[in-house]
Amino acid sequence: MEAVPARARVCAAAAALLAALCALPALTGPTNWGALGLLAALYALCDQVVRRRFGGTFYPVLLAGAFLLTPAAAALVPLPAALLSPVEHAPALPRRVWRAARPALAVWAAAQTHHALDGSAAVARSVFPYALLPAGAAVVAFCLVLTLLDGAMHAAADRVPPRRAWRGLFTRSLAPVAVHGLAGLMTAVLWRSPYGPVAALLVLLPMGVSCWVFAQYHRERAAHQATIRALVQAVDIKDGYTRGHSERVGRASVMIARQLGLDDERVEVLRFAGILHDVGKLGVPTRLLRKDGPLTSEERRIIELHPEYGHEMTRGISFLGEARAAILHHHERLDGSGYPYGLTGTQIPECARVVAVADAFDAMTSNRSYSRARPVEVAVAELERCAGAQFDPRMVGALAAALRRHGWRPEVTADEPAPGMPPRQRTHGRTTGAHR
């Protein structure tokens, strides 16, 4: 059972009271109960299906209600869905109250805005493109109210500072709600046409298919993230002295990729490559990773097999794409003195050249039990000194430019040993003059 803080209960109760006041005129004045009932039932059905199958929200029917009904009547459309949908966590009452009040207030504001701009007449006469203006304003009002309510609940329930509670909520919601609003407008126009509500419902079919495709994409992406997290956690447990290193290398790789102007898909691949570049350490004996003192030549040769181990371990993970090449080749050097294959120049894949720079940069700027962090400026100067022999000068320049623009804020450090691992001096790191 998850307790609901008192401040969150007050927030939900205040929203419910305000929603009741907004909906009250529908109970005392003329209301098209047939349209209201059909839209409320349809929204409840769509809400059940979308929540169970896709894990999201479905606003076209709700916004169609804003375009078709009076504001007070539109505020009643979400009520059956809130009463019928299951509540996963107790206590159920405040959560159900919030689930009803939140969309009720948002759709009431959307309907008020739409009516104020004479959108109902434009919908009834199918006047385009003029019907788009009040509909667009209604979508903005809908998003603003959702943002206000969600931020208030975030601050009340999670005790988030007000300056952070609302950050990014409006911009993240506007685009998807705008798409739902367009579908809602099409539904309303067909509803008012001679073809009636049955034809209007056909608009929801392609929207449902789109939601399904979108949900599948997000589920696949979530599975990818879970796979990567599991692998990184395994590496961090095995070699606790460099925990957090993988995430930081992924972040630096993204900075380089964005500075180079690569497309979003390749940026994401390079993020994966940076995060997983050392996953092959799982195949290296733990005693070598944690050994005190220098390695023998045979032990060093075993550790230098970790790129090949990582490449083999990720062979079956199809979404990694060229990230696997970065895992295999991130220790190659432009002058051919790297490993595992001694590639030179452009023989080394571009993604591996990116990760090599990101890896070296984080190694120099992180506190370790065997070395102190260098200032960012010193690390960049060392990278520039080694550019052309060890590192690709273009990648080094891109990182330097990105750091000048955005700075570097390491969120995870490895200056303390993992639980159960005593501090020690380790001297068998990778040495290049820039990179241990």
From TrEMBL:
<feature type="transmembrane region" description="Helical">
    <location>
        <begin position="197"/>
        <end position="215"/>
    </location>
</feature>
<keyword id="KW-0732">Signal</keyword>
<feature type="signal peptide">
    <location>
        <begin position="1"/>
        <end position="28"/>
    </location>
</feature>
<feature type="transmembrane region" description="Helical">
    <location>
        <begin position="57"/>
        <end position="77"/>
    </location>
</feature>
<dbReference type="Pfam" id="PF13487">
    <property type="entry name" value="HD_5"/>
</dbReference>
<dbReference type="InterPro" id="IPR052020">
    <property type="entry name" value="Cyclic_di-GMP/3'3'-cGAMP_PDE"/>
</dbReference>
<keyword id="KW-0472">Membrane</keyword>
<feature type="domain" description="HD">
    <location>
        <begin position="242"/>
        <end position="364"/>
    </location>
</feature>
<keyword id="KW-1133">Transmembrane helix</keyword>
<feature type="region of interest" description="Disordered">
    <location>
        <begin position="410"/>
        <end position="436"/>
    </location>
</feature>
<protein>
    <submittedName>
        <fullName>HD-GYP domain-containing protein</fullName>
    </submittedName>
</protein>
<feature type="compositionally biased region" description="Basic residues">
    <location>
        <begin position="425"/>
        <end position="436"/>
    </location>
</feature>
<feature type="transmembrane region" description="Helical">
    <location>
        <begin position="169"/>
        <end position="191"/>
    </location>
</feature>
<keyword id="KW-0812">Transmembrane</keyword>
<feature type="transmembrane region" description="Helical">
    <location>
        <begin position="127"/>
        <end position="149"/>
    </location>
</feature>
<dbReference type="InterPro" id="IPR037522">
    <property type="entry name" value="HD_GYP_dom"/>
</dbReference>
<feature type="domain" description="HD-GYP">
    <location>
        <begin position="220"/>
        <end position="415"/>
    </location>
</feature>
<dbReference type="InterPro" id="IPR006674">
    <property type="entry name" value="HD_domain"/>
</dbReference>
<dbReference type="InterPro" id="IPR003607">
    <property type="entry name" value="HD/PDEase_dom"/>
</dbReference>
